[in-house]
Amino acid sequence: MIILKSLRPYRAVLVAACLLLPVQAAQAGTTTTIGTGVAIALPLTAAGIAIYKRDWNGVVDLGLTAVATVGTAFALKQIIKERRPDGSDFKSFPSDTSALAASGSSFLWARYGWEYGVPAFAASQFVSWSRVDAKKHHWHDTAASSLIAFGYSMLITPRFSKYKIYTELETMPDGGSVVRFAYNF
Length: 185
Hints:
The N terminus is likely disordered. Helix 6 runs antiparallel to helix 7. This protein is mainly alpha-helical. It has seven helices and two strands; from the N terminus they run H-H-H-H-H-H-H-E-E.
């Protein structure tokens, strides 16, 4: 019972992973397809967590982060001509699949903390590994996508607080201190 209570923050991520991964594995059997499924599932799971928490601003922040991350990856892919490891084309850098996955995981980390971010980050790194394993990207292509997502999530996504309590401590020139508390509805 204690273990289940300590896993409470991970519950939504774990349930989504348990439901989605076996289905993908049964249908495809390849790490590339499973990685693509996880890449799609991560932002959807992040949206589900935000909706479950009734965090409507978080849903908007996730959307902005995902659009900015994937849009930047797509734009860079058109500008930077790097050949894929399998030689199929010159659109290797950066990985838009990894960008989609990393947008969800970096949002969860920035908005709700490491408890949600660590399992999501591990899932997004699986997506990156699956892209490199499939010879669709170099390791630095997927790392760049993760960095782009992390940067946008830090710029766009503020930390979630159920209670909007702000405190401030200010010292006065005469040696006194002033403590201020504010609560926003």
